[in-house]
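Subject: Transcriptional regulator, LysR family

B.,
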Amino acid sequence: MSQAKSTFEQWRILQAVVDCGGYAQAAEKLNKSQSSLNHAVAKLQTQLGVALLEVRGRKAYLTESGEVLLRRSRHITRSVSELEQLASNLEKGWEPSLLISREMIYPMEHLIDALAEFEPQGRGTRITILDSVISGSAELVESEAVDLAIIGGAPPKGHLAQPLCNVDFHLVCHPSHPLASMELPLDDQTLAEQLQIVIKDTGQIARGELGWLKAERRWTVANFHEALVVLSKGLGFCWIPSHLICDAIKEGRLTRLTLKGSSHRQVPLSLVIPNRDKQGPASQLLEQLILKNHSVLEGEGEG
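Prediction pasted inline below.
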């Protein structure tokens, strides 16, 4: 591997000369002598064997070759600066990555809103989001496999949870399904005789599936997108979060059903920090932004 002919500092000086419009202005910005800047750029051009600048009057102008090389140099110096910033962040304990567990029923737009606010302050922290269901969410918290977890229902024993919101479920089927033409509300026995679509528990030791589970005929799928595809074919019924099916119900692509004694279901969602003692500053910032998104910090809560 050949040794580099130029240095990071030389390119930084060249950028300053161009951006400031001359050597004198750049010298003032960089707190260096004008002669040292002249020497650095002249040496850079000699080392490369390419003319980068030409001086006309009191201003320095890029040559065509200089424009190409300067443009590329900005990417390189930016990358070096980001690398140095990352090293500084790691030294201070700022996490280079965060792993978030999201109960699948949690509205994704809420999390994206918080992440959009986090990104400009995130110092390059990489984000990974895992979708989980029922015991899968609990297992990720108990094993401390994630930095933050949005869970449904009660938190695992020994963990505190901050309530975020409630998600309503509606019982739906396709308009062509026999249930759609039956008199409402339906009774348990009628529903138990039909095919039910449920969402698979993501836990290693599955404790159940997502949905009312009295139907003997049951198809289990990985997520609500797959469940909606099945329903669109006129097959089965399913409990689906209301925010996922508002448009489909309005447009007549799905029919909402009611069950005696249960017009809808509601699941509370909460934010859990699996290990508060090990929580870093990036995780703390994102936690605050998620809570802010739900007005929890102001004590207003959200229903």
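The radius of gyration is 29 Å.

T.
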